[in-house]
Structure formats: structure tokens, C-alpha cells
Design a protein that fits this description.
Number of helices of chain A: 24
Structural class of chain A: mainly alpha
Number of strands of chain B: 0
CATH topology of the largest domain in chain B: Four Helix Bundle (Hemerythrin (Met), subunit A)
Strand content of chain A: under 5%
Strand content of chain B: under 5%
Strand order of the largest sheet of chain A: 1-2
Shape of chain A: globular
Distance between the termini of chain B: 76 Å
Largest sheet of chain A: 2 strands, antiparallel
Number of strands of chain A: 4
Order of helices and strands of chain A: HHEEHHHHHHEEHHHHHHHHHHHHHHHH
Oligomer: heterotrimer
Distance between the termini of chain A: 87 Å
Number of domains of chain B: 2
CATH class of the largest domain in chain B: Mainly Alpha
Radius of gyration of chain B: 21 Å
Radius of gyration of chain A: 30 Å
Largest sheet of chain B: none
Shape of chain B: extended
Chain lengths: 643, 172, 103
């Protein structure tokens, strides 16, 4: 077992960076904050690599143990129920350590050039480090409440970073929306935590999972028999916990915040809304996977369907969007849907746990190529100064490195071998085929759509029009700091597929052999290639084919373009129903009754005091009269009433 | 009907009637003179009770001092001539009612109480005894109150002079 | 019948409440002072009466009355001084005109 100090340092280094830059950055570290942050993160990344190497080479007879690196009791309720702060090391948390520190490091380096010259440079890096700390704390959490604490911290960092350009009203609206929607989902999460901790008597992950998966334990019997509206209590608990995860992972219908979150700077979108924070929901389901799979398989099925529906929903919308960051946002939502339904169709243990491994594998590879896509899009936006596809076109000669890396990422996400996405998607589809045939067909269709819209994006940016004149002769492609992360991530996107993931991560910790079925993988590859071909035909040269197709589809196209009017529906519900029926009466009550009561007390006091004031009239005889009356009254009382 | 009884009732009548005149007269000098007669009546009652010393003190201090002082002040504030303005009727009625209620209460209490009237009613203090007890320092001696009263009179003297002193005119 | 303690007490009570009535009713400061003197005298009468009829062998009531007379004198003197001072600033000794101490 390795020194827990190393493990503790991994989240604490970014925390130290946050405190230092947050408190003193503006005054002392204005220029150097980026370098300091990058160096701290480089150290954290190095430590993560060391921890991963140490963990994965010390398998215990083929099974990776779940170990607690350290644990401090913070708030103790009973002997078993306490909120601890600790680190739980198991395959998925070590994998997440690697992913988070690597992508965060790439984003830190990239931001050196992207955010250069910004007034609040140090604040930006402080927020980035706060986010990294929160995410690392989240993945290392050993306690269900601790994960909730870091969950909220991650939400806060996201809020701060989305609203970084606080002078833009759209950014402010977007960060509020993100925070409110995820907070609303976290209400479900909290109730779920309370239910789970009540029935299992503990908040510690290992003990909780143990208690809730052994059918003989008293807690489990209690949880299964107690029911509300016909659904057992434990199912409610797990469903509510999943709702919290769905909010953070932007699953339908809590997805409305993710496209708007693109108002933040592009490196932030790469880090938070593509690679790390939005997969927190998937991570949570993976963490509690034994309970989902063994005790409440019905909830797991719901997870699967929600994921599948979100995947195809987002893929459809992505085909119509013109803002390149929005396309990538919906693509993220779709891919997370993939990860969730892969978990949904999986079972626990051995071969049946393929979905689990596939989901985690896809999380790993998705982080690589999605971050690459966003950073590449950032390079394009940095060059063209606009987010819209119509302002781009023919950029392949002007931005060569960006072009190549973007192409690699698109091929990866479309599932073209030998890039990473092919391997992870193939495993997901295999698991879906074995688990739930309907979801398999939905997934196949979604893969086709994915290839189509990604290459639509690619062709619209880099082909389509012939480049006119260069915008800025000296502007160029962005410096070394922007290109290096692109190259590194491209290497990851290309090579990560060859990692035998089943050897490291599986549902029960034992090694899982992954088989390669040539015939089986032919179907998705063919569909992907046909999607690419369609996009090639429609978008390589500028033509009317796309607009003709859109017009012929008429109303359907309009609905999909407006994102199925979900935002309008939410606005309607909040404005007409919540505000008018609940908000306005409550406000009326508060203003008139509550305030009225308080004001009435004040007014009454003033009136009484005005009346009493008259007693001091300055007239001696009146005072003498009061005096006499008082004495007379007292005499009467003492003589007749109080003997 | 004995002589002393008649004298007592006459004195009582003088006192009470003068008192009522003192508080209801509209001419201030008339009020002052009625007060004088009321005080003389009270002194008369003291004489009738065989307490000559206190009667003498009453006449010397009260009648000869205080009433004279009051008449001085009437002249000093130049309100001797004209009639005084009278009070609102409501006020008068209310005050009369209050006074009457108080009087009734006191009378009721008075007649319900049995005072232990002593049998030996002819004993009156001698002036020599009054003197020795006034300046006595033993038990039941009033030397301390005597000294205190003298200091009070000194303070009152100085206080009056200071309060009534005309402030120095400002030099222009 | 022979006038006794009760008769004198009735007289003193009557004088007291006449003085109270006068204090409430009169507008002139000097007449208010005169009412106060009536009240003080009624108290004196009370003390002497009790001394004569209930405690004839002691002299406490007498001394008390003596001191009350002395103090009443001092108080009347100070009151006159104040009235004169008030007259100088207000040119009137009507108690209604001296109402600056109101709220």
C-alpha cells in the first residue's frame, strides 16, 4: 500500500493553488499565475501516474482491491453513521484521477495562450484549480456525503467558470441556469442519500454497498419491504440518487443547461462540460453499481432507457445546430447517454459486467477526443473570432495542425478503426446486443447520426468554402501553448483504444477478457462510414443540398432546430405555473401578511406612543392630577383588594 | 353645650370657610387674606388643644412670615389689581369630584377604625421639656433633625438669593 | 358632645382636600402655593391631634409639626424665588403660560 500522502497531495495541490491564486493572484501573481498553476498540475499529474502504476501493478490475485487510503471522521451521528473525509482507491477512481489530471493539465497549458491578456488571468486559473480540486475530491470520495459535498463544489466551480465573462448577460443567464438546474437535481440526490443512509445505517461506500447487496442483512430486508406508492424504499433511494447524477450529466429532461454552458471560455467547456464534470453522474452510477445491478435492477433499466433516449435525442438536435460549440455540447450529451445506457444494460460480475467496463472505457476515450474537439474548436474560434459555422470554411490550409488533430478526433468519435472511439463503442454495442436488443438498435442508429453530424461540422469548418484572404497575416494558428495539448490529446485519441481496459476496470474488480468480434463490429463501422459519406456529399462543397433537405423536412426540421422546444416548455412551466400560481401568491402573502404584521406592530407602537406622548404636556396640574389618581388607586387596591 | 365646644365649632367654621374662600376667591389679595384667617383658625385650634407652643410657632412663622412673603410676591409680580382668570368648568368639576371622592374615602376609613384614645387627656407638654428634648442627644432627642433643619434653612436662603438674583446686564 | 379626636381629624381631612381642589383648579402660581400651604397645615393638625389624644405623654407629633413648619417656610421661600424668576422671563405667573416642558 503506497504512502497515503501522495494520494492526499493529488487534490491538495490544486487546492493550494486555488487559495494562493485566489487570495493573492491579482496583486502578486498577475503574469505568472498560469505557469504556477500548470506546474502544480504537472506535479499532480505525475503523482496520479505514479499512483496508477503502483495500483495496477499490485493486483491481489487478479482482483483489484478497494482500499481506503486515509479517512478522518468529521461528523459522527451514530457508531456507524458518520460523515468522513477520506480517499477510496479502486480501479475507477484511479482511472478518473488519470483522466482528470491529464485533461486539466492540457487545459491549463492551452489557456496560457487562449486567455492571455485577460484582466482576470489569475482569477481564471484560481477557478480552474478550484474545479480540479473539487473533481479530484469527488472521484476520491470514500463517503456518500463527501461525494455530495464535492458534487456541490464542482457545481460551484462550473457556475463561476461559465459566468467568467460576467459582463455578458447571456453568460450570467447561462451560469444561473446551470446552477439552478443542477441544484434542483441535487435535491433528489440529497433525498436519495438520506434514504440510503437511513436504511443501511451508514454513509461509507464500502459498508453501504455491502449492506445493501447482501439479501440476508436486516437492513436490506427493511429497505426492500418498506415501500411508498408501491415502489420499495431502496428503489426510491437509488432512483433519486440517479436523478442527481442525471442532472449533473445533462440527461433528458435536465439537459437544458449544457448547451447554454457554452457561454464560458472554450478551455472551460473542454475541461468541465466535456471531459470531467458531466461524467460525474456516470461515475456516481458506476460507484454504486453493485447496488444498482444486484438490488434494484428495475432502476438500472430506467438508467439504460434514459441514457439511450438522451443519446438519440441529442444526436438529432446536433444535426441541425450552426454554432460549433453547441454541436459539440449536444455531442457530449449523446456520448454520455452512451455511457449511461452501457451501464444500464450491464449486469454485475464476470462476463456479464461487460457494459460496466465498456462504459468506463468510453468515458476514458471520450475525455480524450472530446477535449481535443473542444480545444480545436477553441483554436478555430480564436482565429475566426466567431462561433458560427457560416463564418468558417476552407480553414484546412490556414490551420494545419488544428485540422489534422480535429480530423483524428472526428474519426475517433465516429468509431472508425483504429482510433480509440472504435474500440470503446464496439464494446458498448456488444454489451447492448447482449443486454437489450432495442437499445442496441437505437445505439446503432445514434452512431450513424454521430458520424454524420461530426463530419458535417468538420466539413463546414475546414472544407466547404475556399478561403478568402487570411484574416490576420500575423495571427497564425496560435502558439506552441495551444498546439501542444492538441497534439498530445490526438495521440491519446489515436492510441488509447489499444489499452486492454478489461484488465484494469471491471464491475467486480477481476480482470475481464475483452474479445474482438470482427463480424459484429462490421455493422457499426459501416454505418459510421455511410454517415461520413453522406456528410461528404452534402457539405464538402458549398451547395444547396443541405438547405433543400432542410426545407423538404419542413416542420420536423424546425422542431429539431429549436431543440424540440424543451427550453420553451421549461420557461412556460416556470413562468406561468410556478411564478403565477405559487410565486405570486407567496409574494403577496409575504408582502401583505407577514410584512403587514410587522409594519402593523410598528405602526401600532407609534400610534400608542403618540397618544401616550400627550401625557407629558408640561402642565403641572395635570401631573398632579395623575399623581393623585395613582395614589388614590393604590390606596383602594391596598385597602380592599389586596389584604 | 359647653363653652369650649362652641369655641371649637366656631374655630372649625372659621378655618374651613377661610380655606374654601382661599381657593375660590377671584381677587388674589382676598385669597391671601383668607389664607391668613385660615392659618389663624388653625392656630386657634392649637390653643384650644392646649398646645400653646406650637400655636405660637404657627402664628409667628406661618402667619407672620409665609403669608407676608406671599403678599410681597403678589406685589412684586404686579398681579394685585385685576381679577384672575378662572379655570375651565370641566376642570373645576373634575377636581371637585376628585377631592370629594378622596374625602369620602378618608371618612369611611376613619369611622371604621378604632383609635386607642388615651384616658389621660389633660397632660400637655411643658415648654421646658420641649426645649430639652429638642436639643437632647439621648434616646428621643431631636438634636440631629434640628441641625439638619438649620442646614436646610441655610441652603434655602442661599438658593433663593441665587435663583432670584437679577443677572448682570450685558456690557455693550 | 365633647369634640374629640374624630372631629379634628374630619377638619384636617376637609382642609387637605380643599387644598387639593385648590391646587388642581387655580391658574395662578401663587394661589397654587397657597393651596399647598393649606395641605401642609392640615397635616400638621393631624399630627398634633394624634399627639394630644393617643400619645399624650410623648411629644413626637409636636416635634414633627415643628419641623414641618420650618421646612414649609423654607419651601415657600424657594417657591417664591422661582416664581419671581419665572415672572422675569415670561412676564406672567399663569401656570398655563409656562408649558415649555411638553414633549
Amino acid at each position: 500500500m503506497m504512502n497515503p500522502v501522495y494520494i492526499a497531495l493529488i487534490p491538495l495541490l490544486p487546492l493550494a493553488g486555488f487559495l494562493m491564486l485566489g487570495l493573492f493572484g491579482r496583486k502578486f501573481f498577475k503574469e505568472t499565475s498560469g505557469i504556477i498553476a500548470t506546474l502544480l498540475l504537472l506535479t499532480a499529474f505525475g503523482l496520479s501516474v505514479y499512483v496508477a502504476y503502483d495500483y495496477f501493478t499490485h493486483a491481489n490475485g487478479g482482483v483489484y482491491p478497494k482500499t481506503i487510503a486515509f479517512q478522518y471522521t468529521w461528523l459522527r451521528f451514530t457508531d456507524t453513521l458518520s460523515i468522513d473525509m477520506g480517499a477510496l482507491i479502486d480501479p475507477i477512481s484511479v482511472m478518473m484521477l488519470l483522466v482528470v489530471t491529464f485533461v486539466s493539465l492540457m487545459v491549463h497549458i492551452y489557456s496560457l495562450a487562449y486567455v492571455k491578456g485577460e484582466e482576470r488571468f489569475a482569477t481564471y486559473y484560481a477557478y480552474l484549480m478550484l474545479f480540479t480540486f473539487s473533481m479530484l475530491g469527488l472521484v476520491l470520495s470514500s463517503n456518500l456525503f463527501q461525494i455530495y459535498i464535492f458534487w456541490e463544489l464542482v457545481g460551484l466551480s462550473s457556475f463561476l467558470l461559465i459566468g467568467f465573462y460576467y459582463n455578458k448577460p447571456s453568460a450570467v443567464a447561462a451560469c444561473k441556469k446551470a446552477f439552478i438546474v443542477t441544484r434542483f437535481a441535487d435535491l433528489g440526490f440529497l433525498i436519495g442519500i438520506l434514504i440510503l443512509s437511513f436504511y443501511s445505517g451508514t454513509l461509507d461506500f464500502a459498508t453501504l454497498i455491502n449492506t445493501l447487496t447482501t439479501p440476508e442483512s436486516a437492513a436490506m430486508k427493511n429497505a426492500v419491504t418498506a415501500s411508498f406508492l408501491g415502489v420499495s424504499a431502496i428503489s426510491w433511494g437509488m432512483a433519486l440518487v440517479f436523478i442527481g447524477g442525471a442532472g449533473k450529466s445533462a440527461m433528458f429532461p435536465l439537459h437544458i443547461w449544457l448547451p447554454d454552458a457554452m457561454e464560458g471560455p472554450t478551455p472551460v467547456s473542454a475541461l468541465i462540460h466535456a471531459a470531467t464534470m458531466v461524467v460525474a453522474g456516470v461515475f456516481l452510477v458506476a460507484r454504486l453499481f453493485p447496488v444498482f445491478a444486484l438490488t434494484t435492477p428495475a432502476v438500472l433499466e430506467i438508467v439504460g432507457w434514459v441514457g439511450a433516449f438522451s443519446a438519440i435525442f441529442a444526436a438529432m438536435i446536433a444535426c441541425t445546430q450552426t454554432d460549433i460549440k453547441r454541436v459539440l455540447a449536444y455531442s457530449t450529451m449523446s456520448q454520455i447517454g452512451f455511457m449511461l445506457f452501457a451501464l444500464g444494460v450491464s449486469k454485475y460480475g464476470g462476463e456479464n459486467g461487460l457494459g460496466f467496463t465498456a462504459s468506463m472505457f468510453h468515458l476514458f476515450t471520450h475525455a480524450m477526443f472530446k477535449a481535443l474537439l473542444f480545444l480545436g474548436a477553441g483554436a478555430v474560434i480564436h482565429y475566426v473570432h466567431s462561433n458560427e459555422m457560416k463564418d468558417m470554411g476552407g480553414l484546412r490550409k490556414l490551420l494545419p495542425i488544428t485540422h489534422i488533430t480535429f480530423l483524428i478526433a472526428c474519426l475517433a468519435i465516429a468509431g472508425v478503426p483504429p482510433f480509440a472511439g472504435f474500440f470503446s463503442k464496439e464494446e458498448i454495442l456488444l454489451a447492448a446486443f447482449n443486454g437489450n436488443k432495442t437499445i442496441y438498435y437505437v445505439a446503432l442508429l445514434t452512431s450513424g447520426l454521430t458520424a454524420f453530424y461530426m463530419f458535417r461540422l468538420y466539413f463546414n469548418i475546414f472544407w466547404s468554402k475556399e478561403p478568402a484572404t487570411q484574416h490576420d497575416k500575423h495571427h497564425g494558428e496560435g502558439g506552441f501553448a495551444m498546439m501542444m495539448p492538441l497534439v498530445l490529446l490526438a495521440i491519446g485519441a489515436a492510441a488509447a483504444g489499444f489499452i486492454p481496459f478489461g484488465n484494469f476496470v471491471s464491475s467486480d474488480g477481476a480482470k475481464l477478457e475483452s474479445h474482438f468480434h470482427l463480424a459484429f463490429s462490421a455493422a457499426p463501422v459501416l454505418i459510421g462510414l455511410s454517415g461520413i459519406l453522406l456528410a461528404f456529399v452534402m457539405y464538402k462543397k458549398q451547395s444547396n443540398k443541405a438547405t433543400n433537405l432542410a426545407n423538404s423536412l419542413g416542420g420536423i426540421y424546425k422542431t429539431v432546430y429549436h431543440k424540440f422546444y424543451i427550453d420553451e416548455l421549461y420557461l412556460f412551466i416556470t413562468k406561468k405555473i410556478l411564478f403565477n400560481l405559487i410565486g405570486r401568491p407567496a409574494a403577496w402573502f409575504d408582502k401583505n401578511v407577514v410584512d403587514g404584521l410587522v409594519n402593523a406592530t410598528g405602526n401600532a407602537t407609534t400610534m400608542i406612543s403618540a397618544k401616550i406622548k400627550g401625557m407629558q404636556s408640561g402642565r403641572v396640574q395635570q401631573y398632579a392630577a395623575y399623581f393623585f389618581a395613582g395614589v388614590f388607586g393604590l390606596v383602594l387596591i391596598f385597602l380592599y383588594i389586596w389584604k | 353645650m359647653e363653652g369650649s365646644t362652641i369655641i371649637f365649632y366656631l374655630l372649625a367654621l372659621l378655618t374651613v370657610v377661610s380655606g374654601i374662600l382661599a381657593v375660590t376667591a377671584t381677587n388674589i389679595l382676598r385669597a391671601a387674606i383668607s389664607l391668613l384667617f385660615a392659618l389663624i383658625g388653625i392656630a386657634g385650634i392649637y390653643f384650644w388643644l392646649d398646645y400653646q407652643f406650637i400655636a405660637a410657632v404657627q402664628i409667628v412663622v406661618y402667619v407672620g412670615g409665609i403669608v407676608v412673603l406671599i403678599i410681597f410676591s403678589i406685589f412684586l409680580t404686579q398681579s394685585a389689581g385685576e381679577k384672575m382668570p378662572s379655570q375651565k368648568l370641566g376642570r373645576t368639576v373634575f377636581s371637585a369630584l376628585a377631592a370629594f371622592c378622596g374625602f369620602a374615602l378618608v371618612l369611611i376609613q376613619l369611622f371604621q377604625h378604632n383609635f386607642p384614645i388615651s384616658k389621660d387627656l389633660t397632660l400637655t407638654p411643658k415648654v421646658a421639656d420641649i426645649g430639652t428634648q429638642m436639643l437632647g442627644v439621648k434616646e428621643e432627642g431631636y438634636a440631629l433633625p434640628f441641625e439638619l433643619v438649620s442646614m436646610l434653612l441655610l441652603a434655602a436662603l442661599i438658593g433663593c438669593i441665587v435663583i432670584a438674583m437679577r443677572s448682570k446686564p450685558q456690557t455693550t | 358632645m365633647q369634640p374629640g379626636l374624630y372631629h379634628i381629624l374630619i377638619i384636617s381631612a376637609a382642609l387637605f382636600f380643599i387644598g387639593v381642589f385648590g391646587f388642581f383648579t387655580r391658574r395662578n402660581l401663587i394661589t397654587m402655593l397657597m393651596s399647598i400651604e393649606l395641605i401642609l397645615n392640615s397635616v400638621n393638625l393631624n399630627f398634633i391631634a394624634f399627639n394630644k389624644y393617643v400619645w399624650p405623654h410623648k411629644m413626637d407629633g409636636l416635634f414633627f409639626s415643628l419641623f414641618v413648619i420650618a421646612i414649609a417656610a423654607a419651601e415657600a421661600a424657594v417657591a417664591i424665588a422661582i416664581i419671581i424668576n419665572l415672572y422675569r422671563s415670561h412676564q406672567s405667573i399663569d401656570v398655563e403660560d409656562a408649558g415649555e416642558m411638553k414633549y
